[in-house]
From TrEMBL:
InterPro entries: AAA+_ATPase (IPR003593), MoxR (IPR045427), P-loop_NTPase (IPR027417), RavA_ATPases (IPR050513). The lineage of its organism: Archaea, Thermoproteota, Thermoprotei, Thermoproteales, Thermoproteaceae. SUPFAM superfamilies: P-loop containing nucleoside triphosphate hydrolases (SSF52540). Pfam families: bpMoxR (PF20030). SMART domains: AAA. Residues 35-175 form the AAA+ ATPase domain. PANTHER family: ATPASE RAVA (PTHR32204). It comes from Pyrobaculum neutrophilum (strain DSM 2338 / JCM 9278 / NBRC 100436 / V24Sta) (Thermoproteus neutrophilus). This is ATPase associated with various cellular activities AAA_5.
């Protein structure tokens, strides 16, 4: 299993090198793949959602199905057309080749714009991985269904569909000052996409999925003991269904595998850190995302939470022209920051937050 964990970690690193500031999207999508979960990207068009699924499919040697859904999209465009030859013989059969039924991955773009007929079909695919076609129950081979949308549905009839995508990431456009780096990364991606060769196969993904599940069930008591208090505390900020809560241990161990941490190397610190990170992918909307950020700043290990408080205190001191006290506080903050950087678990999981704190401290120091 060590080899398979290394392979999926290499897939993540390769995708990270291709996309600009897409770490959450990449890590969450691969976590979904390892748990055979449905995953949705929410954000404006033109944020590389389709390219991510295309690239992942290449690296995993996966067959993928894509369809942009509108209210005019026919069911046949998703699950396949009626076989005319068979129909002339009096048999009603469907051609499933090149449809969602035969794909490893499916990307359904603007999924909430689909007709009610397609939405009903999608619910059975998302829930049961089957379609009810006439009098037959047809198994759907799709391993992971990716959704893409630029809006969160507020229509009651669409909530059931949205709830079937428990892992979610909100995408956004790059900032104006990031344009140069974005263009360079985008051009490299366009150039390199066709050159990508598989680093892993879907059979290997399935083996790793089985191993992760076995590990979670065999170590259930220890894993739940470390994870459940964090999830319970998070529920004061964000609502998570019972169905999703039950699967959090699977998400956490899959997330760690995506980072290259084998189940045999998992300890209490990595479990707790990974849980904090995975909770970001369980938000419902952008308001929940803000609640998550607040929750994270008060629950991070290695004195990082205290550092956030110190940064706010230093800002107030600078604003009130208490510069000598601010200098002492900044010195103290840097010392704590150095200790956090020296902690391998803290730095590995919270590198982005550490760099954010350091950047703010550097800015405040320049004002003194």
């Amino acid at each position: 299993m060590e080899e398979l964990v290394n392979k999926v970690a290499q897939v993540r690193k390769t995708l990270d090198s291709l996309f600009y500031k897409f770490t959450d999207e990449i890590t969450a999508s691969l976590t979904a793949v390892l748990t055979r979960e449905n995953f949705i990207l929410i954000g404006p068009p033109g944020t590389a959602k389709t390219m991510l699924v295309a690239s992942t499919s290449k690296l995993l040697k996966a067959r993928w199905f894509y369809r942009l859904l509108t209210k005019f999209t026919e069911v046949e465009e998703v699950i396949g057309p009626i076989d005319v030859v068979e129909l002339l013989k009096g048999n009603v059969k469907r051609i499933y080749t090149n449809s969602i039924v035969e794909a490893d991955f499916a990307l359904l773009d603007e999924i909430f714009n689909a007709s009610s007929a397609i939405l009903n079909t999608m619910l059975t695919i998302l829930n049961e991985r089957v379609i009810y076609d006439g009098g037959s129950i047809i198994p759907v081979k799709t391993w992971t269904v990716f959704g893409a949308t630029n809006r969160i549905p507020d229509e009651e009839e669409l909530q059931a569909l949205y709830d079937r995508f428990p892992l979610r990431v909100f995408t956004k456009y790059a900032e104006p000052d990031e344009t140069e780096n974005l263009i360079k990364a985008g051009l490299r991606l366009r150039r390199d996409l066709e050159r990508l060769t598989p680093l892993m196969t879907m059979e290997e993904v399935k083996k790793l999925n089985e191993y992760v599940q076995s590990y979670v069930y065999e170590n259930m008591d220890a894993i739940v003991r470390h994870i459940s208090p964090i999830v319970a505390s998070y529920l004061d900020h964000v609502v998570i269904s019972n169905r999703t809560r039950v699967k959090v241990p699977l998400y956490v161990v899959s997330y760690l595998s995506v980072l290259g941490i084998s189940p045999s190397d998992i300890d209490s610190a990595t479990l707790r850190a990974a849980t904090l990170k995975v909770l970001k992918y369980l938000v419902k909307d952008r308001e929940d995302l803000s609640e998550y950020e607040t929750f994270l700043t008060t629950h991070m290990p290695g004195n990082l939470s205290a550092l956030y408080d110190m940064v706010n205190e230093i800002k107030a001191l600078v604003a009130n022209n208490a510069l000598s006290i601010a200098r002492e506080k900044i010195k103290e903050a840097y010392e704590i920051l150095d200790k956090s950087i020296a902690d391998p678990v803290v730095y590995r999981f919270f590198q982005v937050e550490i760099e954010e704190i350091k950047s703010t401290l550097d800015m405040l120091r320049s004002q003194l």
